[in-house]
Design brief:
The complex is a heterodimer of chains A (324) and B (273).
Chain A lengths: L5 E16 L4 E17 L3 E5 L6 H8 L7 E6 L2 E2 L5 H10 E4 L13 H11 L4 H14 L16 H13 L5 E5 L7 H18 L2 E5 L3 H7 L2 E6 L2 E7 H7 L3 H9 L50 E2 L6 E2 L5
Parallel strand pairs in A: 3-8, 3-9, 6-7, 7-8
Antiparallel strand pairs in A: 1-2, 1-4, 4-5, 9-10, 10-12, 11-12
Helix pairs in contact in A: 3-4, 3-5, 4-5, 5-6, 7-8
Chain B lengths: L15 E12 L2 E13 L4 E5 L6 H9 L7 E10 L2 E2 L5 H4 L7 E4 L3 H4 L6 H12 L4 H14 L5 H4 L9 H13 L5 E5 L7 H18 L2 E6 L2 H7 L2 E6 L2 E7 H6 L4 H10 L3
Parallel strand pairs in B: 3-8, 3-9, 6-7, 7-8
Antiparallel strand pairs in B: 1-2, 1-4, 4-5, 9-10
Classes of the chains: A alpha/beta (324), B alpha/beta (273).
């Protein structure tokens, strides 16, 4: 995977939302959710996107699939800008790029049967009823559900099974790029494990590229090839996933790693450095480095200059911090 | 004969004893047993962690101790719940009310649904304090401020005038903890109190629980689906599955030499990397 094509290139993505207030409802303030994100995803890799709630992970995912178009910046899919004015191009784009959402209770239409939910994509793209049924059955089999699921409604399934239905829906038309927005975080650990194993096997079978969004660093380290860690709408570190837990350098990334509970009661006494404070509201973005008010290592330039992502070593490890 | 460690001079009596708890729900005209013969002891100043997957009966166990299960789902409940020797099972709802919040504090998983959205944090704290303690409104407000300070709420005086939706998840959970602590409960029952929080905030809240327990000498019944969190906080652990007690042990023993296959399986899941 050293030299590979880029399936997706995001350059300087900015997304802000106006905050309307006062009796004239004027958009006076803006909440800056994405502050110039540049991210490249290579063909065939699993890119992890980590960060705490509110850092803009999901907004980035929605910007990529145009559910919520970015305010500025450029997104290239297979080297081409996707023009969503053209219905044909849009249709082709959504055939290739599919999404799995966090909450399988909200993302499946409760009034449609599972067979209809999974088959809808195929029908839209003109498959015959017989082909649709075959493909749906195959997709169900892929995710470990049997054909009896076809005529059931989403409420008849457990959370893990619904997430399987959501995966079947996303993969039924063989997309190239799968965007999975916290696909397992609403599930308990054993189910998480099973769904991740399922995604792993489907990934290699269908030669997928995956953007995997999660707040769980252990999960990302286990499942992904590379990781971007976000804080307040910027990427603060880009690192290969197997090095994340051991070689993560950005103070925020260190803090995230140190905050993970250690599954050994004997290690409890080991004093860890916890970051104080909470993520500021995105409206009042600190000057300079967004993390500096909470950072234990802040020094002179931190509150003035915004650090940019810089390569640390010859490989793809990049950190946005004045320390490095 | 001189004891080597002063703590071990007398065997402590548990503050909360649950004995043969059975809870049966009524689901579509069927009696469905939810909790099957659960027994545990909670000792003073100790933390008992209850761990299990969703649907294993952890929350129902906690709610049963508080007797907070409504009768439509609940069909019947048997066994003993001895709090300081008094059997809560025999108490009526009205007799339970003074204990809830005062002797037994409760913290829920999702503070947004547990807090009242149309009242400020101050109003909710003051209501709680004045329900249980004979104090004036002024005194209750002062107490509310000092509680919020104790749980590490930034700008407590100002923040308490906020409504729950104006607070971040971490601050809401701190407000919930302040409410649960407001009447100095002897036992604090926390049902997945960190599950909805981000990992850095979770670490802060766990640290807060440890400090509070140390300072207030409380007993803590801590429920979580996450064994890692349990490893951080519990002294004793009970592993539950399908309403049954799978394994109970000291935290060190449980993590380092689990006996039951299910416990090993759960431990395997958090160490699969």
């Amino acid at each position: 995977m050293m030299i590979s094509e880029n399936i997706l290139e995001c350059t300087d993505i900015i997304k802000h939302f106006p905050v309307r207030g006062g009796i004239w409802r004027k958009g006076r303030n803006r909440i800056h959710v994405l502050n110039g994100i540049s991210l490249t995803i290579h063909k065939g890799e699993i890119m992890g996107l980590a960060g705490e709630s509110g850092c803009g992970k999901s907004t980035l995912a929605k910007a990529i699939v145009n559910l919520s178009p970015p305010s500025a910046g450029q997104i290239l899919y297979n080297g081409r800008r996707v023009s969503l004015d053209s219905a044909r191009e849009k249709k082709r784009f959504y055939k290739d790029v599919q999404m799995i959402f966090q909450d399988p209770f909200a993302s499946l239409n409760p009034r449609h049967k599972v067979g209809g939910i999974i088959g809808e994509m195929l029908r839209i793209h003109g498959a015959s009823p017989a082909d649709t049924e075959n493909a749906v059955l195959l997709a169900l089999k892929d995710v470990g559900l049997d054909s009896s699921a076809l005529d059931k409604y989403p409420h008849e399934f457990s959370g893990g099974q619904r997430q399987r239905v959501a995966i079947a829906r996303a993969l039924v038309n063989h997309p190239k790029l799968l965007i999975a927005d916290e696909p397992v975080s609403s599930l308990d650990l054993a189910t998480q494990h099973r769904i991740i194993e399922l995604l792993k096997s489907l990934k290699s079978r269908y030669d997928l590229t995956v953007l995997f969004i999660s707040h769980d660093l252990n999960l990302i380290a286990d499942f992904c090839d590379r990781t971007a860690v976000m804080y307040m709408g910027s990427i603060c570190e880009l690192i290969s996933a197997d090095q994340l837990l051991t070689h993560g350098r950005h103070p925020y990334v260190r803090a995230l790693i140190d905050s993970i509970p250690i599954s050994d009661p004997r290690m409890r006494m080991k004093k860890r450095t916890l970051v104080s404070g909470e993520v500021p509201i995105a409206g009042d973005l600190p000057t300079g480095c967004a993390f500096h008010p909470r950072c234990p290592h802040r020094f002179d330039p931190c509150d003035v200059h915004t650090p940019r992502l810089r390569s640390l070593t010859a490989d793809a490890h990049q950190v946005a911090c004045h320390l490095y | 004969m001189t004891p080597t460690t002063p703590e071990k001079t007398d065997t402590p009596t548990p503050i909360l004893v649950v004995k043969d708890l059975n809870v049966v729900f009524r689901v579509k005209h069927h009696a469905v047993p939810i909790i099957k013969n659960i027994s545990f002891n909670l000792f003073p100043k100790q933390t008992l962690g209850i761990v299990g997957e969703s649907g294993s009966g952890k929350s129902v166990t906690a709610l049963s101790v508080m007797k907070l299960i409504d009768t439509p789902p609940l069909l019947h409940m048997t066994g003993q719940i001895l709090f300081q020797g008094r059997d809560l099972m025999t108490l009526s709802n009205r007799q339970m009310q003074p204990l809830r919040g005062k002797e037994l504090g409760f913290i829920f998983q999702e503070p947004m649904t547990a807090l009242n959205p149309v009242l400020t944090i101050k109003d909710q704290l003051v209501e709680m304090i004045r329900n249980h303690l004979k104090v004036t409104r002024r005194e209750a407000v002062d107490r509310a401020v000092s509680l919020l300070t104790e749980v590490g709420m930034p700008n407590p005086g100002q923040r308490m005038r906020n409504y729950p939706h104006q607070l971040s998840g971490g601050m809401r959970q701190r407000a919930m903890i302040a409410m649960a602590l407001s009447c100095n409960p002897k036992v604090l029952i926390a049902d997945e109190p960190t599950t909805a929080l981000d990992v850095t905030i979770q670490a802060q809240v766990l640290e807060l629980f440890r400090t509070l327990q140390e300072e207030r000498q409380m007993s803590l019944l801590f429920i979580s689906h996450d064994l890692r969190v349990i490893a951080e906080i519990a002294d004793q652990v009970m592993v539950m599955r399908d309403g049954k007690n799978i394994e109970s042990a000291n935290v060190d023993r449980l993590f380092h030499s689990p006996i039951r296959a299910y416990t090993r399986e759960l431990l395997g899941l958090i160490r699969y990397q």
